Amino acid sequence: MKKAIVLGATGGTGQVIVTELLARGIEVTAFGRSETKLNHLVIDNHHHPLLTYKLGDIFAYETIVEAANDADVIFQCANVPYHEMEQHLLPLGERVMKAADALGKKIVIVDGIYVYGHQVAKGDENHPKQPHTKKGKLRVQFENLIFDKKWSNAKPLIVRLPDYYGVTSQNSYLQPTLTGLASGKLSIFIGSLHTPREYIYLPDAAKMIVEVASRDDAYGENWNIPGSGLITGKELLAIAREITGNNKPVIPLNRAAVRLSGLFDPVLKEVVEIMYITEDGFTLSGEKYEKRIGEIVATPYEIGLKTTLEQLMKNLT
């Protein structure tokens, strides 16, 4: 891989993938619709000589075709808000795959774990895809679209991440918790403080995603990317309080509280049906990655949270 394009480059995963590609000496085109955000991305990467950007609409496949014409790999990191998923997710998949197919390109789709529903076995790539939520069922349709045989020229793969955190994170479950702690204010925690869950540090995710993307034999498959081990919300808060010095209350939001908040917030309204993940947890297996790619990159929570919170505190001053 000598050149790549990152769709949704200014999002949480898009930003870290851009940075990781540049660190490997790969020429990168950052694709998005906000010139202001793309300019900030260039500044954040110190005007790296291998980084350029192109404005475009993810739902207009012609603009993707034009921007991705000379790329070796397309990284699809753009997403849609929860409350717009039913309307926009499948059209997004159709457009990016149509562009990849027209160009005969490799394309890496970054997705989550809703396709699995409740955990019934080890969370490897063969875990049953029997989701009980509308979002999970929609994500299964999305996967089927990505791997549809009508795309005779495109070479797709899907990487699946658990919930994540990091400096660039924007819409994760942990984001309001960490932002509140960094700002010295009261904050919230979505879900149970006692359920052991895994989170992935976004720079770790980027390293492993790019490793998968660099292997020709990885395409046509699903890849699960695990986090840094299990941790409860209570344990996570103890680490974060030590870093920030913020001992103000953190209010856990259970299903009932999120449902009530959803009366006033369209995004939280859509979170209710997937609260099972925050209540039961779901652990991804990295066995396939370890066997075929290499060692799992897993920054300890103490280090990842320290980097994230210190940067958030700096940004807020």
Automatic annotation (TrEMBL):
Residues 8-117 form the NAD(P)-binding domain. This is Nucleoside-diphosphate-sugar epimerase. It comes from Metabacillus niabensis. The lineage of its organism: Bacteria, Bacillati, Bacillota, Bacilli, Bacillales.
